[in-house]
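Tutorial, part two.
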Amino acid sequence: MSNPFLILSDSSSTSTNPYSTASSKVVSIDNDSSSSSSSSTTNIYKDILEDILLCTIDEQPSSSLIYLAELAIELPENFDKNFIDQALFERLHMIDPSSQLLTSITKKSTIRNDINMITENRCIHYLVGCYQRLLRQRNHFKLVFEDIRKLFIDHTKTAISLPDLYDGQDLSKQWLELLIDGQENPLLYEYIDCINNDFLSEITDEIENLYNFVFRYIYKMIQPLDYFSTELITYIGVLKYLAKWPALVRIIFRLSHPKTTSNRSIQHPFGQSGGGRAFEDTLIGSLLSKSCLPSLPGKPYLFFEKPKVMTEHDVDLTSKTMWQPMRTYQQNLSDLFLAFVKNGDVRNDILKWIGDCLIENRGKNKEWSSHNPLTAYLYVSDGFLLNLNFILLNFARPFSEPYSPKLLKINPIYAISQNENVHLKDLYKDTPMIVRD
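Running the prediction step on this input gives:
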């Protein structure tokens, strides 16, 4: 069975990658090569098939492996990179790999973890597993390392570009699982770097769709989490890692703007939120809204639900329990936004989002807003604005330190500017502390 998608892989690519060696050698099979050299090359590719792909073409393997029946029937004359490519294609398109599992005739038992790894049927998880096994044995396969490594990258890119080939598999969910696991496994982030660097240089609809679903998954998963949840910090870590790609930051803030209504799933008692409140019902807004304060009237407080029956010791202990994780969470939020704005290509998108958010929620600082409970459904919560203020104060710190040379970078007439290009529009309409003549 030939691989009809082999043409999608550009084997002649000379793009730089983090795994290239000083002298990259490619194994080739020359008609005039000695039989010993040919045998050695064959053994290398057979080792890759069994040790890296965890597959076999032998009906009686020495260890538990997945049997590739079609490849065994159509054995090529020479074992080369195309042989591994065909093996990958057959393995990835198996509906149930466990049905082709051949148990070792020498090893009486195989631990369950090994079986799960051998029979892995999730496309991206299987490819990244092969990738890691190859890296661990790169010295053994150094002659063909670059060729085989690129095969795994190319098959991953093909899966992302043509997700219909893997009908029934949620590739965006698999990709998110990879991003989460990567925080404890640097090899996974190296693998993701290779894919992102190739795809995001000129963003395509396929990679944009993948990350649209990834960010919507994150939005959905963080809804029930409180600010002291370690799982929430994990998702912030994923976003912080992805912040180095401008295209992804742009997608995040586009999805987090109320004009993109398709990313909101929460329905409030008075209908879908609009105006300033709509900023809270987005990915970035949801992160900012995590607080010890309730986000809506009627919701319980996380702490001090019955303060009158608490002793002074209980109040003090609860305060420490509440504030320490709150400070940690706010610092993580601040670090995330700092990672965003450090990316000069998308800084304008971020500042525009902040400016639009403050403008749409301007009514919250009016005196009448505190007397009308319905305004809670019109504007973002107190916790949201406290977190945003913490972030903005951290941004301002380098400019506000005594004798800081950065003070001279502050434009004193920004607050009265009527230029339409500023991020915080109509600021000049607010009541100033010093009346301008």
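The radius of gyration is 28 Å. In part three we will examine how such features are distributed along the chain.
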